[in-house]
């Protein structure tokens, strides 16, 4: 369990009672999004890196370890150290980077 | 109830928003200079913008009993052209004399480029030479972790006290490092791309309430100028004490911003 500096003043039943329905809907949204992706026609043989990162992140949700939000954000982060000279010609943020064997690029 | 929204772009909001914020208990806002949604064509555009921030917005806010303060800079998105950025920076010292200016912000990085970093360093130096506090913008999405670390390293290389710097838009993967390095941390409550009130309250529970605040960063995009009072309701719904709610949404902003004499003297705690 993640260490709490300020304990949440609700027991587990209360937490589930309060947020289950909201997150049930979000869960179904994610399932429907993945179905939509699978039903669509790919434009190339290569998987989209965002799709791959998204599916990797889903694994974090059910691995039983703490700090899931932090680890999902870290998985979707650029861990490179190079700095381009200018932003000229660069695209906007894409929300993910290609996942490599060592983690994210 | 009363609260401070320490990061909101009121130039992009309607007067109705001031009214609703006042009705929800807002007593003060601070507005950092930012990107207007398009690149300005000249430094003169910033001159006009700085006048709007220092002359017009305080009057508009005062109609509803809200005190308006501001931070000045060239934002990181328009800082990728160093020559242009330096023209804008040269305008800032004159405006630092205004009664409602709290410091330099929101400076930072957007695409984590060397050009942006050079201008960030020059604006840190400007803050240092004029004894100003700093409000920092961190990049969004995949660029945030790298950008936040680059920004903290740049500030650490200066003589600026981290206790006079607030790093904004922190999320679960950056908040601990920001606090561990002695900075203040801001959580931005945004409907889509940033934090929800629920996640922000989770962060408070996991990392404590020391040197942490929440803001709406309400602007011209999909954003909510009432995000801070909604986060207060979220804390209350969970059963957190009124003292803790007030600490995060009023006392902490007062403590950080009160390091500026102008703010301390103007806002009665």
Compile the SSE list and pairings.
The complex is a heterodimer of chains A (105) and B (269).
Chain A: H1 12-39, H2 49-61, H3 68-75, E1 99-100, E2 103-104
Antiparallel strand pairs in A: 1-2
Helix pairs in contact in A: 2-3
Chain B: E1 3-5, H1 15-23, E2 26-32, H2 43-62, E3 67-72, H3 82-89, H4 92-95, E4 101-108, H5 114-129, E5 133-137, H6 144-156, E6 165-167, H7 175-180, E7 184-188, H8 197-207, E8 212-215, H9 227-238, H10 242-257, H11 261-266
Parallel strand pairs in B: 1-2, 2-3, 3-4, 4-5, 5-6, 6-7, 7-8
Helix pairs in contact in B: 2-3, 3-5, 5-6, 8-9, 9-10
Structure commentary:
The complex is a heterodimer of chains A (105) and B (269). With 105 residues, chain A is mainly alpha-helical. Chain A folds into two domains: 10-41; 45-81 and 91-105, no CATH class. Chain A is 47% helix and 4% strand. Chain A has three helices and two strands. A two-stranded antiparallel sheet of chain A has the order 1-2. Chain B has helices at 15-23, 43-62, 82-89, 92-95, 114-129, 144-156, 175-180, 197-207, 227-238, 242-257, 261-266, and strands at 3-5, 26-32, 67-72, 101-108, 133-137, 165-167, 184-188, 212-215. Chain B contains eleven helices and eight strands. The relative contact order of chain B is 0.14. In chain B, strands 1-2-3-4-5-6-7-8 form an eight-stranded parallel β-sheet. Chain B has one domain (3-266): Alpha-Beta Barrel (TIM Barrel), CATH 3.20.20. Chain B has 269 residues and is α/β, with parallel strands linked by helices. Chain A binds chain B through residues 2-10, 18-19, 67, 69-71, 73-74, 76-81, 83-88, 90, 93-97, and chain B through 80, 110-117, 139-146, 150, 171-173, 198-199, 202, 204-209, 237-240, 244.
């Amino acid at each position: 369990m993640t260490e709490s500096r300020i304990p949440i003043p609700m027991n587990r039943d209360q937490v589930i009672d309060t947020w289950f329905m909201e997150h049930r809907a979000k869960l179904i949204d994610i399932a429907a999004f993945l179905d939509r992706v699978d039903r669509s026609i790919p434009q190339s043989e290569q998987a989209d890196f965002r799709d791959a990162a998204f599916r990797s992140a889903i694994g974090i949700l059910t691995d039983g370890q703490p700090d899931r939000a932090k680890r999902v954000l870290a998985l979707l982060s650029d861990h490179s150290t190079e700095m381009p000279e200018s932003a000229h010609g660069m695209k906007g943020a894409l929300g993910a980077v290609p996942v490599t064997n060592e983690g994210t690029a | 109830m009363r609260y401070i929204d320490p990061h909101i772009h009121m130039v992009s909001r309607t007067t109705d928003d001031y009214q609703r914020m006042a009705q929800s208990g807002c007593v003060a806002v601070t507005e950092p200079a930012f990107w207007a949604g398009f690149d300005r064509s000249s430094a003169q555009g910033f001159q006009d913008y700085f006048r709007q921030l220092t002359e017009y917005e305080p009057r508009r806010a005062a109609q509803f009993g809200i005190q308006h303060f501001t931070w000045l800079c060239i934002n990181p998105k328009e800082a990728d052209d160093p020559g242009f950025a330096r023209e804008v920076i040269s305008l800032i010292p004159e405006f630092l004399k205004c009664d409602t200016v709290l410091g330099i912000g929101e400076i930072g990085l957007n695409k984590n480029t060397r050009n942006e970093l050079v201008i960030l360093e020059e604006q840190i130096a400007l803050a240092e030479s004029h004894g100003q506090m700093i409000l920092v913008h961190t990049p969004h999405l995949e660029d945030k972790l790298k950008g936040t670390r680059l920004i903290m390293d740049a500030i650490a290389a200066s003589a600026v006290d981290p206790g006079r710097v607030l790093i904004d838009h922190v999320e679960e993967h950056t908040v601990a490092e920001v606090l561990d390095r002695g900075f203040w941390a801001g959580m931005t409550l945004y409907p889509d791309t940033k934090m929800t009130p629920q996640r922000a309250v989770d962060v408070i529970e996991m990392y404590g309430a020391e040197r942490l605040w929440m803001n709406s960063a309400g602007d011209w995009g999909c954003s909510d100028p009432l995000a801070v009072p909604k986060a207060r309701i979220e804390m209350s719904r969970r059963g957190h004490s009124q003292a803790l709610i007030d600490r995060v949404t009023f006392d902490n902003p007062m403590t950080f911003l009160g390091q500026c004499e102008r703010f301390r003297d103007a806002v009665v705690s």
